[in-house]
Amino acid sequence: MALLLWLGLSLLVSVQPSAVKNCHPGCHCEVESFGLFDSFSLTRVDCRGLGPSTTMPIPIPLDTAHLDLSSNSMGPLSDTMLAGPGYTTLVSLDLSSNHITKVSPNALSKLRYLETLDLSHNSLESLSPSCFNGLPLAEVDLSHNSFQEFDMDVFTTKVNGEPVSVDLSHNKLVSVSTTLHGRVLHIQSLNLSSNQLLSVPTLAGLPLRYLNLDGNPITRIKEGAFSQLKDLVYLFISGLRELQEIEPHSFKGLQSLQVLDLSNNPKLKTLSPAVFIGLDSLQELNLSGSGVASLPNNMLTHLPSIKSITLGESIQCWRTQKQGQFHRQLGQVQHNDVLSCNVEGIVL
Ligand SMILES: *[C@@H]1O[C@H](CO)[C@@H](O)[C@H](O)[C@H]1NC(C)=O
Ligand SMILES: *[C@@H]1O[C@H](CO)[C@@H](O)[C@H](O)[C@H]1NC(C)=O
Asked: What are 116-120's contacts with CB under 8 Å, separation 24+?
């Protein structure tokens, strides 16, 4: 009975933080044990903001899984700063806000299990092509740095084919390139918001499911701009102050796209129905805060899956079926899909 009770309790209390031996002064270390008989445990070490006199590598417990080294003014990352005992087993590493200007080619090479890497809020302008060599990365945050150009090839040396999410928002990017030579690069999410891109970058060879281009100074979206992105499900093109034109067939090839955000593009005044050709799976379209004030009813012919179109904060349109007349030759009632909105005079 006592055993059963104890068993029950240890199942209930599945995560129990406890003190850790050998925790560096100034850091906070915590072991989380879980599973029956506490059979699994992982150590989380928080060494944020230790002050400038700290020497790297900071000693950490041998089985550390998560390490936070943010806000430590680390400066350029050398080959030795992340090479101590305990670093090999890291699954996630936070190096944000550290004035990092450079990552030396082998600085990360010991981190053979690293899945999550946060290098945001630093001063990076480039990365050596081999700096992620052999790492099983799944999530990389490079936002709030100073990249002007970025070659996605840096992710080809990742150790496995698992998909990776990359955040490059809030940089100074004028170009993003891929020189894959026929290889596929398993990037599934790419955030390019708040950069200096003047046109939609060519991202052929990336099996993207999510792409964010918000807040770039793009003036025009050209025919076939996304033609290589057949797996894309979410596309965000919002807050483009200078966007004036989306050419017909711009979204051609986006056969999997379900959500398209074109909101807050004030200079975008008209959209021809031919803009929407190829969007066979599109369910949600957001035009809130754009210059587009009305919709041609025949745009539905190109949007067979559309469920809702948002035109303003409280202006919403839906696909509805209008029952048609009995068609003698076909011997059935024909239905007509029409666009209905909660405000009159929107559909032309
Ligand atoms: C992309 O970046 C923007 C700006 O930093 C942020 O608001 C948005 O949530 C990001 N998207 C994802 C999927 O993380
Ligand atoms: C449409 O975009 C606006 C502005 O970006 C946002 O506030 C709103 O929540 C979006 N609506 C939908 C239905 O996604």
From this structure: 116/91, 116/92, 116/140, 117/92, 117/93, 117/141, 118/70, 118/92, 118/93, 118/94, 119/95, 119/145, 120/96, 120/144, 120/145, 120/167
DSSP three-state, residue 156: coil
pLDDT in tens, 228-257: 999 999 999 999 999 999 999 999 999 999
Per-residue confidence (pLDDT) for residue 332, from 0 to 100 = 57
262 inside domain: no
Q: Which residue has the tokens 């992105």?
A: 229
Return d(Cα 276, Cα 39) in angstroms, integer.
54
Domain count, the chain: 1
Is residue 341 in a domain?
Answer: no
CA of 190 to the centre of ligand 2 (A): 20
Q: Which amino acid is at 110?
A: K
Name the residue at shortest CA distance from atom 12 of ligand 1: 191
Q: Which domain, by its residues, includes 40? A: 18-53
Assigned domain for 180 exists: no
Residue 191 Cβ contacting ligand 1 at under 6 Å: yes
Rounded Cα distance between 226 and 190, Å, is 14
Q: Is 209 in the pocket of ligand 1 (CB under 6 A)?
A: no
Asked whether residue 22 is domain-assigned, the answer is: yes
Best mutation site among 140, 169, 237 for ligand 1 pocket (most ligand atoms within 8 Å of CB): 169
Write the Ramachandran bin of 278: left for phi over 0, alpha for psi from -120 to 50, otherwise beta. left
Residue to mutate, 235, 261, 318, ligand 2, most ligand atoms under 8 Å from C-beta: 261
| Residues in the ligand 2 pocket, defined by CB under 6 Å | 238, 263-264, 286, 288-289, 310
**193 in contact with ligand 1, CB cutoff 6 A:** yes
- Please write the tens of the pLDDT for every residue from 2-38: 444 444 444 444 444 555 667 999 999 999 888 777 7
CB of 195 within 6 A of ligand 1: the answer is no
Q: What band does 323 get if pLDDT is binned at 50, 70 and 90?
A: low
